Amino acid sequence: MIPRSRLRELLLPAILRYAALLCVANLPYWVLGRFFFLDRAWFSVDSVVVALASGLGPSVGLAVLCVSWLADAVTSASRIYFFGSVGSFVDATRFAGRLDLLAFVSWQNAAVLLAFCTCAAMSWRLMRRRIDWRAALIVSLPIVLLDVLNGSSYLSMRASRIEAENVASSPLLTVARAVAVARPPGPLDTLPKGESVSDVVDVDAWAAAHPNRSILLVMVESMGLHRDTGVREWLRAGLVDAGMSARYEVVERQLPFRGATVAGELRGLCGLAGDYRSITPELAGRCLPARLAAQGWHSVGLHGFSGNMFDRRDWWPRIGLQQIEFGEELSPSGARRCGGAFRGACDTDLVQRAGTELRRSRQFVYLLTLNSHLPVPIEAGVSPDAQARCDAAHTGRDVCQLIAIQHALLRSLHDMLLGLDDTPLVLLVGDHAPPFVGTALRDQFIVDRVPAVVLVPR
């Protein structure tokens, strides 16, 4: 039997070594958290699993560490991109093959990869000597207990947290639960009146009163509310000027948003919140295209990316969109293409396509834009006017490129609408705030609101 004094001598170095491993395992996210929006716990207790795996050799421990880092990245990314749950984000990864992944290559991401490689080398060195599992428990249990007392943990009985942030979490457990326990999507909820752009004006009544006119609903990708009033006014001027004000009554709102793009679509088209896979025939009948179809209107849905992305080719017709055109139809091989990672048909071309449809009576056109999906291409230039606005608001290059793309879209809408003989009812709304990873960029936008503009013909 080992004397207690000897046991302490053996255990103390193991405790210090594990504490060092715990810090090194969390170090990349601690450093990145100073610059990026990660919304993660202070500590990932998955390092206990890493310590146990290192007993089979440092290479095994390092492999498990990399898996735990990946799980940590998945949970952070689900929050960055406004997914309602980790499970929803994991499900969305089945569409990753449709993206231009080279658009994510940058010096910044290369620096992040280098930081992880450096910490991986440090961790491997620490794991070359087997880490006592007792040391891992001795260090980790107080952290977990502190998390429980704080009210962050599932084990806690507190109704609210003492400290706003989590103390500890297990991304591995979170992702494993999302993958292994594949629950069917929950039922959709009806949003309170006034949270959807289609609530700003009584669209059904307007359609009934103007059977020879048309209606356009535009959902703009990543159009949030910039905190600088000068930027907001400049964007507004891209669509609304004296010519438009003479033809339209302009109604502006700031609407709440939750979730990513598909959530914005359900909100704008149907006044619903939840998973699109839960749309029942009864709920689909409440959606704007289906309601207009009941009045004898024809509906068209336009989007420049693949119709298989988020199964739009399946659920768009279910909500009443009778004619749908996606990137496969709108941007065949050899056609002009725009955008970054989500590269497809150019929004300005889709605006002209929408204008062709709007010249017909009883037409409802739904246009979901694409080109302002982050990351926007770094080679995109901006006009001197845009650069001056950006410099005044200190937006930085990335935000400036985004709002320049959105301003060009709004100007193309302006020109198309003024070219129509019969003015349509126009509803325009953002889907969510721009999901910038950098905290300084993300904080330029209001966190829970998007702009909405309704143009009612005079």
Feature tags:
single chain; 458 residues; Alkaline Phosphatase, subunit A; two-stranded parallel ribbon; 13 strands; 48% helix
Would you identify the CATH H-level superfamily of the largest domain? Answer: Alkaline Phosphatase, subunit A
* Unreliable stretches covering 5 or more consecutive residues: none
What CATH calls the topology of the largest domain is Alkaline Phosphatase, subunit A
The CATH architecture of the largest domain is 3-Layer(aba) Sandwich
Provide the β-strand percentage band: 5-15%
CATH class annotation of the largest domain: Alpha Beta
Derived from helix and strand composition plus strand pairing, the structural class reads: alpha/beta
What strand order characterises the main sheet?
5-13-12-4-11-7-8
Helical segment count: 19
Helicity, as a percent range: 40-55%
Give average pLDDT, whole number: 92
In total, the number of strands is 13
What does this structure look like?
With 458 residues, the chain is α/β, with parallel strands linked by helices. It has two domains: 4-180, no CATH class; 189-457, Alkaline Phosphatase, subunit A (3-Layer(aba) Sandwich), CATH 3.40.720.10. The protein is built from 19 helices and 13 strands. The protein has helices at residues 4-32, 47-54, 58-80, 86-92, 107-127, 133-150, 171-180, 203-209, 229-239, 242-247, 261-270, 281-284, 288-293, 312-318, 327-330, 347-358, 384-393, 397-418, 439-442; strands at 43-44, 168-169, 189-190, 214-220, 248-256, 272-273, 298-303, 323-325, 337-338, 344-345, 363-368, 425-430, 449-457. Strand 9 (337-338) and strand 10 (344-345) form a beta hairpin. The model has no long low-confidence stretch (mean pLDDT 92).
